[in-house]
Amino acid sequence: MTPQSDEDEVWRQIVASFNDTSELDSADQPWPDSENLPAEPPRRVVKAPEEVRHPLPEEFATLGQESEPEAATEDDEGHYVPPPPPPLPKTDTATKLAWLALFGGPAYLLLSAALGWRLQGWMLFTAVAAFIGGFVALVVRMGDGPPTDGWDDGAVV
What we know:
mainly alpha
């Protein structure tokens, strides 16, 4: 017999026995005793908790900080009040103008379309050029180059 004829014979046997039921039907298999539940569930004894004082979330929030004179009311109990955010970083004039052009050009076109103003060619060109110029200026100023303070593997801790 050739290896091809052996494979063909095995394949014919598999196809012929496709619709046959298995010898061990799942209903005939015994249920393992370890899976059976006891007749009565075990009784659980619940003890009253001892009086232990746990710190409140407000105490964790103010740990290590100077306490602020604030009158705590019953309505405000349990709420976390985050500290004020740090100030935004200062931006230079060129970045502010780029953002203004990026949003100002399309805003002008949208406003003129909503109010039905007729735009001259140079006004339309200026609005579109402001949008494109603002976008290009922001992309160029992104600083996508290598870090200036030395080698950086990208990990942030």
